[in-house]
Fold:
Amino acid sequence: MTTTITICDTCKRDDWNATSGATDGEVLASLIEAAAANVDNVSTRRHSCLMGCSGACNITLQSTGKMAYTLGRFDPTNEAAQGIVDYAAMHAATDTGVVPFREWPVAIKGHFVTRHPPLTE
Structure:
C-alpha cells in the first residue's frame, strides 16, 4: 500500500533568508520529490501550512489503515530528504505503519513530533 509524504511548502526556519526566493519548505519539497521519484509505493504532495511553524520544516506520513506520523525540525538537505523517503518506503512495507526504531534512518531520528492511530470505520 502506498505511503504519502505530505510536505509543508510554506515552512520557513528561523534563519530563513527572504532574498533566497524559495521557502525552506519548497526546497525540502523539491528534494523529497526528487528522492521519491522512482520509489515504489511512495507518493508525495505539497500542502501549504501544516501548522508546525515553531518546528519547520514539517512533513507527514500517511497511508490508509496505518499509523500516521508528523515529523519536523528538518534542514532542507539531500540527507534529510533521502531519510524521509527511506522511512516512507519502510512505512509502506509494513501492515501497521510501525517501523522498529533500530531500522529508522539516522536522518529522521529526533524529528518525530506526533503519531496518529488509523481511523476506524
User: Anything to note?
Assistant: The chain has one domain: 3-116. The first strand starts at residue 3 and ends at 8. The beta strands are 3-8, 42-47, 59-62, 68-71, 112-116.
